[in-house]
Design a protein that fits this description.
Shape: elongated
Distance between the termini: 38 Å
Strand content: 15-25%
CATH class of the largest domain: Alpha Beta
Strand order of the largest sheet: 3-2-1-4-5-6-7
Helix content: 40-55%
Low-confidence stretches: none
Radius of gyration: 24 Å
CATH architecture of the largest domain: 3-Layer(aba) Sandwich
CATH superfamily of the largest domain: 3-Deoxy-D-manno-octulosonic-acid transferase, N-terminal domain
Length: about 425
């Protein structure tokens, strides 16, 4: 009787949850969260899905669905998608956030002509509709990143016996909530494979999900950043070359916001010979306030757009063009990663690969597992107060220390291949 009552309550809760999504969230909440263009594109993708006639999976059981919540998660999955394409797997790629739309288009372009077959790419289903997509696309394995988790996705995967792999997995509230809601709805979770970036994260996930298979194999974002740095930007390389006579040391403020400048100035002027500032956004409405701020501090500024050579030696080079960070970080003596006094810090991987000391503000540091590792090695300093800034300005790591940092960064490469090998084992088990 207890079992029947539990199942009955679970059935009621699931119907309530799905009804809440279809009758409240979809018609009333989503239009307030997403742009009309995003909603129209999602509808087109749903219609396009309905026209696909994929038939059953092939005998090799090699159809992998990669799903990314936003552009950051897509960057984590990118190396694995690229490797899977080269090895001939059939691919499905979906995103949730509009921020990843351009990146997805670039990825699809990169995949053209590869050995794989791209079955479908576009926006993911809304919560409550995962089963429809799974029945139509028939993946062997679904792979997502970090802590992207949806109860209906988990239940739908479990019902169809499709394993779920999570890359750069972290024990965060979304994973715990998805597992808890599945349990409350008397539904099983899918077979879970967590690939964490650090041993500490592996241990936390194993305690929380004792039935899951958990391995710490690193974060493929390091591979992605390294690959981008090797590709280069001819315009950025030419300007860096033209700037070789500018005074050293060079400091690079990457993805900078006005709040970063307000914290750093005027103290940071003691630390630089030439300061390169790369705003988070390079449109004039973002660049002009920064230029005005710098001028109030009596700083000589030159902007890069249209610049071919340096006639004098400005204190600050304000980069109002896209695609300069990799080249600048490779030439920098130190770096500041912006966002830590606003919405949260941006990626610290690019400067970390170059072995330079890194400073950043405090907000959003918990989102990235590498922040803890870089802080422990002494390469990254999280600064909150003027005293923190003063101490960091006075610090000067030796070349031996910086070489060690660079070696540690190089040792983190290869996660994509390591994880892909594990995914291949999962695919082989599915075919047995």
């Amino acid at each position: 009787m207890t079992w029947d009552l539990s199942r009955l309550i679970g059935h009621f809760l699931r119907n309530f949850y799905l009804g809440l999504n279809s009758h409240v969230i979809e018609p009333w909440i989503l239009p307030r969260v997403f742009s009309p263009a995003r909603l129209r594109e999602a509808k087109k993708d749903q219609e396009r899905l309905g026209t696909l006639d994929l038939g059953a999976r092939g005998t090799n059981f090699n159809r992998i669905w990669f799903h990314a919540a936003s552009v950051g998660e897509l960057e984590s999955l990118w190396p694995l998608i690229s490797i899977s394409a080269d090895r001939g797997h059939e691919l499905i790629i979906t995103i949730l956030s509009e921020s990843a739309h351009t990146a997805l288009a670039n990825l699809v372009l990169e995949l053209s002509g590869r050995a794989s077959s791209l079955i479908f790419s576009g926006y993911s289903p809304w919560e409550g509709h995962w089963g429809e997509y799974l029945d139509q696309l028939k993946p062997t394995l679904l792979v997502t990143a970090r802590y992207e988790a949806w109860p209906d996705l988990w239940m739908s995967l479990s019902q169809r016996q499709i394993p779920l792999g999570i890359i750069a997995a972290r024990d965060r509230r979304s994973l715990r909530l998805a597992e808890k809601l599945c349990r409350w709805m008397s539904q099983d979770v899918p077979q879970l494979f967590f690939f964490s970036a650090t041993p500490g994260e592996r241990e936390g996930l194993q305690r929380r999900f004792p039935k899951a298979q958990v391995k710490d194999l690193g974060d493929p974002r390091w591979d992605r950043v390294h690959e981008r740095s090797q590709r280069g930007n001819p315009r950025a390389s030419a300007l860096v070359q033209a700037a070789q006579d500018l005074p050293r040391p060079w400091g690079v403020l990457g993805s900078a916001w006005m709040a970063d400048l307000a914290f750093l100035f005027p103290g940071v002027l003691q630390k630089h010979g030439t300061l390169w500032i790369v705003p988070h956004r390079v449109e004039e409405e973002s660049v002009l306030p920064m230029e005005a701020f710098l001028m109030t501090h009596g700083v000589g500024v030159v902007k890069t757009r249209g610049l071919l050579r340096f006639e004098d030696q400005p204190q600050v080079v304000l980069v109002n063009e896209m695609g300069f960070l990799s080249e600048l970080y490779s030439a920098a003596d130190w770096a500041w990663v912006g966002g830590g006094f606003g919405q949260g810090i941006h990626s610290t991987l690019e400067p970390a690969l170059q072995g330079v000391p890194i400073g950043t503000g405090p907000r959003g540091t918990s989102k990235f597992s590498e922040v803890e590792a870089l802080s422990e090695s002494g390469q990254l300093a999280v600064l909150s107060t003027p005293n923190d800034l003063e101490l960091w300005i006075q610090s000067a790591p030796s070349s031996q220390v910086q070489n060690r940092w660079k070696e540690q960064a190089q040792a983190r490469l290869g996660a994509g291949e390591r994880i892909f090998a594990e995914l291949n084992l999962i695919l082989k088990k599915c075919s047995d």
